[in-house]
Automatic annotation (TrEMBL):
It holds the Pfam family DNA_pol3_delta2. One of its GO terms (biological process) is DNA-templated DNA replication. It is an enzyme of class 2 (transferase). This is DNA polymerase III subunit tau. It comes from the Bacteria.
């Protein structure tokens, strides 16, 4: 896939292409931005262009046909290392970093360089980060490291100072809608526009929301929170756990589905904050806006801040593989105390 097909990130591509054409391409990058907006896809496409055996490096344009490009596409190129936090770990462990550095130090098998893509660096602990420093300071000739996280502020300064930070923005609504149609995720232009508006620039969120079952559960969850009778937190936890298990047997898939719903709660409370401040809520969904209006009338702004923070905290804990039932029980217990009309009486 050529770099020009990485939708919505023209500014980042132009900056990297300028560096490559002047012969000043850095040996280490830190890609930062919201989750699900294409940073990993961009990193792999950049790796493909650097390992392309036909096009000049300065183009940053993989041909997609040479043996190097084909192997990158297939995930079998001997000079490309792709790693990240294991699904069963809360952090990116030092073992993964040590294995990466050892393999990265070997001579290239096909061409003149090795390329490594390291995802989930937000979860890299200090020990793992320090083990990375020597490789960042003295990389093999021509080698390129691409680290992927959400924020430079979450990394050690010693890591950030040795990388060129490349910031990625959420995809524009029109770009995301076009991509959803192109990939067959949306049924038609209207469906694509609706999903793109709800997804707020995130491809992964749009894919999740395209699931009809998830869309129905999301609607029931939000309407239940805004209902006059309130909701039973224990029942809501069991419903979300059961719904998450429908994502498949893999715990990673179940956590991603639960995380998506917890993220929807955080966005709902953000909309309530906007409403209480006299601003138009960001959600274009009429049903969302009705629920937001009800909650804005019921809650004080300080309470909404607390709820939004609790949802973000729960999402963080889910991403770190904390025990999911306990995370959800704590979250919905706190939400019920603030949201339920009886609890506030």
């Amino acid at each position: 896939m050529p770099c020009v097909s990485v939708r919505g990130h023209d500014r980042a591509l132009a900056s990297l292409r300028s560096s490559a054409q002047s012969g000043r391409l850095p040996h280490a990058f830190l890609f930062v931005g919201p989750e699900g907006i294409g940073k990993r896809t961009f990193a792999l496409t950049l790796a493909q262009s650097l390992l392309c055996e036909r096009n000049a490096e300065g183009l940053l344009e993989p041909c997609g046909e040479c043996p190097g490009c084909v192997q990158v596409e297939a995930g079998s190129h001997p000079d490309l290392i792709v790693t990240g936090r294991p699904d069963d770990k809360q952090e990116l462990p030092i073992r993964v970093i040590r294995d990466l550095c050892a393999e990265f130090g070997l001579k290239p098998a096909r061409g003149v360089r090795k390329v490594a893509v390291v995802d989930d660096v937000d979860t890299m602990n200090d020990e793992a980060a320090n083990a990375f420093l020597k490789t960042l300071e003295e990389p093999p000739p021509g080698a390129v490291l691409i680290l992927i996280g959400t924020s430079a502020e979450q990394q050690l300064e010693t890591i950030v100072s040795r990388c060129q930070v490349v910031r990625f923005d959420p995809l524009p609504v029109d770009e995301l809608a076009g991509l959803l149609l192109e990939k067959g995720i949306a049924a038609d232009a209207d469906d694509a526009a609706k999903l793109a508006a709800l997804a707020e620039g995130s491809v992964s969120r749009a894919i999740g929301l395209a699931d009809p079952d998830l869309d129905r559960y999301r609607r029931d969850l939000i309407d239940g929170l805004a209902g006059e009778r309130g909701f039973d937190p224990a029942e809501q936890v069991q419903q979300l756990l059961a719904f998450s298990k429908k994502a498949g047997k893999e715990t990673g898939a179940q956590r991603r589905r639960a995380s998506l719903m917890v993220g929807e709660l955080a966005r709902l409370f953000r909309g309530v904050l906007w409403q209480t401040a006299g601003l138009e809520p960001p959600s274009a969904d009429p049903a969302d806006r009705r629920a937001i209006a009800v909650l804005a009338q019921r809650l004080e702004p300080e309470d909404v801040f607390i709820l939004a923070d609790r949802a973000l905290e729960a999402d963080f804990h889910l991403a770190r593989n904390l025990y999911m039932p306990l995370v959800l029980e704590s979250l919905f217990h706190d939400v019920a105390k603030v949201v339920n009309p009886k609890a506030r009486a």
